[in-house]
Amino acid sequence: YQDGVMKKQVDGKDTVAHIFEYTTQLSVDAKPQLVLPQENDPLNLVPVQIILVIKAKNQKKINSHRWVFNAIGRMLEPEICVMIDAGTRPGHKSIYRLWEAFYNNKNLGGCCGEISAMLDGGKKLLNPLVAA
């Protein structure tokens, strides 16, 4: 965390979005099991680039998709884009399974995961809004 990095204005113009980039290394095999680094083997860890875009105003999901595909995607030409709604907690292997689908089928144009509610054993079902 770096306090003060996100500015409301730049050169007198309102900020539309904040973009953060981080590259990490992740390696899993087809099972998926973590592949531990082997000494003197530069190929055993694959770099993964993560980009986080925080919009200054909530302009709904379609606007977010436009940002990803029209702005960021055209510049970076990514092989795969994974979009996760705010407040969504992916399952343990969810993102891997999405990647796996694209990796194993070069003709695949898109896919989505399954969404399920986390209900803490059903006690929140006592709330009629949740139960509905």
From TrEMBL:
* Reactions catalysed according to its record: [(1->4)-N-acetyl-beta-D-glucosaminyl](n) + UDP-N-acetyl-alpha-D-glucosamine = [(1->4)-N-acetyl-beta-D-glucosaminyl](n+1) + UDP + H(+)
Chief site of localization: membrane
Keyword Cell membrane listed? The answer is yes
Cellular component (GO) terms are:
cell septum; plasma membrane
- What's the protein called, per UniProt? Chitin synthase
Q: How does it sit in the bilayer?
A: Multi-pass membrane protein
Q: Which GO terms describe its biological process?
A: cell wall organization; chitin biosynthetic process
Briefly state the protein's biological role: Polymerizes chitin, a structural polymer of the cell wall and septum, by transferring the sugar moiety of UDP-GlcNAc to the non-reducing end of the growing chitin polymer.
Compartments where found = Cell membrane
Coiled-coil residues? none
Task: Tell me the superkingdom of the source.
Answer: Eukaryota
Against InterPro entries, the record matches this protein to: Chitin_synth
Keywords for this entry? Cell membrane, Cell wall biogenesis/degradation, Glycosyltransferase, Membrane, Transferase, Transmembrane
What is the primary gene name for this protein?
Answer: chs
Q: What protein family does this chain belong to?
A: Belongs to the chitin synthase family. Class III subfamily.
Its Gene Ontology molecular function terms? chitin synthase activity
Q: What is its EC number?
A: 2.4.1.16
Give the originating organism: Amanita spissacea
